[in-house]
Structure formats: C-alpha cells, structure tokens
Specification:
The protein is α+β, with helices and mostly antiparallel strands and 226 residues long. The chain folds into three domains: 57 residues, no CATH class; 45 residues, no CATH class; 106 residues, Arc Repressor Mutant, subunit A, CATH 1.10.10. Helix content is 50%, strand content 13%. Strand 2 and strand 3 form a beta hairpin. Helix 4 packs across helix 8.
Length: 226
C-alpha cells in the first residue's frame, strides 16, 4: 500500500466515525492516457459520504528520482504501469520502461561508469590505462567493471581466425542494445559529454598516427626498391 492509499484510508476512517454510512470514492489507480490520468488531472478528491460531500487535497506527486510528476513530464512504464518522469523513462523495443523493469524483463542495466566503459570498448579502446585517462575511472575499477560486464555485455569470443591469435574485447549484441538505450539517459550529462569529446580526439589522433606510420613505411619500401 503506497502513501496515497494510507492517507486516504486515514481520512476515510475519520469520516466513517463521524457518519458511518455508505461511501463512494473516485478510483485513482486506473491506468490510462496521461491526459486522462485521474491521479494527475484532479488533485482535489471529492468524496461522498451518505448525503454529504467532502473534498481533500492529494499531491503533489513525485517520481522515484525525486522530480515532481506532471502531465507535461509524465509517462507510464509498459510493464509495472507506474507513472514515472520522462527523464527516468527508457525506451526499448518501442516501449517505455522504468529502469527496474528494463533490468527485470530485458536484463539491461548500466551504471554511468559502465556506460562510459562500453563507449570506449565500442570504439576499439580496450586498454585499461587509456580508459582511465579518457573517463577518470580508476584502473582497478575499470578492470572490475569489465570483469562484471564480461559475457553479458562484452566478450572476447573470436569472430575469425585472426582474433583467435589476437583476442579482442568487443560488445555483445546485448551490449550494443544497452549502450543505445542508456545513451538517452547519460549522454547529455556534462561528464559524459566531456568524455565523448576526449574519446573522439583520441581516436582521431590514433588514426592520424597510423596513417603517418603507413605513409612512412610505404616511403621506405619505395626507396629500398629504387
């Protein structure tokens, strides 16, 4: 029983003592469109007790993250049917989920640190010390998080003969799904924006160095032939 039910019961008990007759109460847990949501559209509840009408105020309402829930920012989890704010809503397979149901039904759950690490791995950056420089996550934590993410979100299972000789850490299909889903949650955070910029610059610099090295090797090879 949630806090709203307890508050209502307290009011009903008091009213029944005053006038113990039949009573009808508006249903407030009915699932529907946000615009028609009883719990949002009417904060003043009208209760009928016998021949008398009384009104009580209920609300405001809050999401589990602490933000207030209004018609403008409310959405409903497709599984548990709870109202949550849009910032806590995660869209997966064209359905809105709360984070708890996303993990329970689809086995997808990431912390911000996990998200940053998966971003690095998805771009081929797997060295622990390099990930530390890009994300600020301590090397021992990076190592532990990768071990926890192994097999479910990342894998070293080879795709071909070359990877059998030189194992490479890469994302699983679920890892790609998780990264895409949680990008909508964490990507706008200042630390993630900064980390993405560093990652982009690192990859560009690495590509530049690789190009220069190949050019130098080709030049040396050409001189030897001459």
């Amino acid at each position: 029983m949630d806090s709203i039910d307890k508050r209502l019961l307290g009011v009903f008990d008091k009213m029944e003592k005053d006038e113990p007759e039949s009573m009808t109460v508006e249903t407030i847990e009915m699932a529907g469109d946000i615009v028609d949501e009883p719990i949002l559209s009417k904060n003043i509840r009208e209760l009928k007790l016998g021949s008398k009408h009384r009104k009580i105020n209920i609300g405001p309402f809050f999401c589990q993250c602490g933000k207030s829930i209004t018609k403008e920012n409310a959405t409903r989890c497709s599984h548990c049917k709870r109202l949550i704010c849009k910032d806590c809503s995660v869209v997966y397979l064209n359905e809105a989920h709360c984070k708890k149901c996303l993990e329970s039904y689809h086995k997808i759950s990431l912390t911000k640190a996990d998200y940053m690490i998966l971003l690095c791995v998805s771009d081929g950056v797997t060295d622990i010390d390099t990930i530390f420089l890009l994300t600020g996550i301590r090397p021992n934590v990076v190592k532990n998080r990768i071990e926890n993410l192994m097999e479910k979100y990342v894998t070293k299972e080879p795709k071909g003969f070359f990877e059998k000789l030189f194992p490479k850490l890469r994302l699983t299909n679920l890892g790609h799904d998780a990264l895409g889903v949680f990008d909508s949650i964490y990507s706008k955070d200042a630390d993630c924006v900064s980390m993405k910029q560093k990652l982009s610059e690192f990859i560009a610099e690495k590509a530049k160095q690789t190009f220069c090295l190949r050019t130098e090797e080709e030049k040396n090879c050409s001189n030897q032939k001459s």
